[in-house]
Amino acid sequence: MVSYAIAAPAQAHLDIVGSDEKFPVRRIYCIGKNYVAHIREMNQDERDPPVIFMKPADAIVKNGGEIPYPVFTSNFHYECELIVALKSGGYNIAEEDASSHIFGYAVGLDMTRRDHQAAALAKGLPWEVTKSFDLSAPVGPITRVEDSGVLENGHVRLKVNGDVRQDADISLMIWKIDEIIAKLSEQHRLMPGDIIMTGTPAGVGAVVTGDVMDCSVDGLAPMQVRVGGVAA
């Protein structure tokens, strides 16, 4: 048995619909620029391929939780996305085999310090400061693929205080889920416990303390989170 010099961090995990078991989160992979309409609203070149970045596992916020308004930003944005959870992985996964590695799906938010993203893009800097900060990855309960079927279409929606801000269909993704898994596995050894944020459609915008965000994807458990006061 390993003896640690300090208390070991808790294992990040997600709930599973209809089960007392938990899904342990190893890594959070994120796909940017994966819907044409969102690329256009960000004034980016839609001919560029989607970008790949990561968030730390301890950025997870579960359904019903509260996100403190983060330090080091005055322009805190939501990005509602379909989440893919993996039960297996490896290197160089073929597209035709990709769906066999899926454990299930969830809905989530890629919370963003938008003011710093603009500076990072302009200077070609890494995205950690804008994407990988504390509690920047709210994710709802996972629906097993056996219950949902393999998802190829379905509305992804986000409401802020009851008003619809994002509403699109996952069929409009530039890179489809099988392609995302295959492409990621060219660069990373995918593993059980990895989750993938597949990109956000148009309609992103800012939230402030007190705002309530409701996120959904057809056929999956919905998620609600609230923006709290400034992080201490």
UniProtKB/TrEMBL annotation:
A Pfam family matched in the record: FAA_hydrolase
Gene Ontology molecular-function annotations: hydrolase activity
Spell out the InterPro entries in the cross-references: Fumarylacetoacetase-like_C, Fumarylacetoacetase_C_sf
Q: Which UniProt keywords apply?
A: Hydrolase, Metal-binding
Q: Where is the Fumarylacetoacetase-like C-terminal domain?
A: 28-227
Q: What is this protein called?
A: Fumarylacetoacetate hydrolase family protein
